[in-house]
């Protein structure tokens, strides 16, 4: 993905595929498996992002929207 040889069109295709992956009902389960098995920092980052979004969705479902005081 971050290889200098990856052209802009291919990067956009990969980003779209990753965006679609996040919508899958089993994305969290698969992300946890990938997180366990991958040594790629990019894969780990992407899986952590799925974990974060899933956690926020769960908390919002259980407790309502989060309000940050700042």
Structure keywords:
single chain; 70 residues; mainly alpha; 71% helix; elongated
Question: Could you give a quick summary of the protein structure above?
Answer:
It is built from 3 helices and no strands. It is mainly α and 70 residues long. α2 (27-37) runs antiparallel to α3 (41-63).
Bulk shape:
elongated
Low-confidence stretches: none
Mean pLDDT: 86
| Structural class by sheet pairing and helices | mainly alpha
Work out the number of β strands: 0
Task: Write down the Rg.
Answer: 15 Å
Provide the succession of SSEs.
HHH
Number of helices: 3
Please estimate the helix content.
over 70%
**Alpha-carbon distance between the two ends:** 36 Å
Which band does the percent of strand residues land in? under 5%
Largest sheet descriptor? none
Descriptive notes:
With 70 residues, this protein is mainly α. α2 runs antiparallel to α3. The longest helix is centred in the C-terminal third of the chain and has 23 residues. The chain is elongated, with a radius of gyration of 15 Å.
Q: How is this fold's topology laid out?
A:
Elements: H1 8-23, H2 27-37, H3 41-63
Helix pairs in contact: 2-3
